[in-house]
Amino acid sequence: MNTRRIGAQKEEEVCAYLLSEGVRITERNYRCRQGEIDIVGYDGAFLVFFEVKYRSGGRSGSAAEAVGSAKQRRICRVADYYRMMHHCAEDVPIRFDVVAVDGQRIRWIRDAFYYIPR
Question: For residue 28, what are the domain limits?
Fold first, then answer.
């Protein structure tokens, strides 16, 4: 199985997990010129931007370690664009979460990083 197909399968598993945890998913694979966000949804009052990372084994480090500062900045730029295009009110709280999939283990890291302004 190729890596793109595996990634899509793991993302499906993550969506099912998030739904079971009460997340209301509004977008998947949101793309714009600034980049992509894997999943956008609401966890209670929070508008959450989810980055999904998968690692089959520990040779390349954990999945959570793969979301470095450059990726975080890109996600923040996409989130800004998303909020502008969807007319999100300024007072809607936002959060940046990572869902790390290491092998078969899913770990949801809330507030994985904070907003990085341009």
Answer: 3-113
More confident residue, 39 or 103: 39
Per-residue pLDDT of 25-57, as tens digits, reads 999 999 999 999 999 999 999 999 999 988 776
The tokens describing 10, both together, are 């793991």
Look at residue 109 and give its three-state secondary structure: strand
Whether residue 34 is contained in a domain is answered as yes
Determine the Cα–Cα distance for residues 7 and 43; give it in Å rounded to an integer. 23
The pTM assigned to this predicted structure is 0.91
Is position 118 within any domain? no
Rounded distance between C-alpha atoms, residue 16 and residue 51, angstroms: 15
Domains identified in the chain, total number:
1
DSSP annotation string for 2-54:
-HHHHHHHHHHHHHHHHHHTT-EEEEEEEEETTEEEEEEEEETTEEEEEEEEE
CATH of the domain at 10: 3.40.1350.10
β-pairing, 35-43 vs 94-102, is unpaired
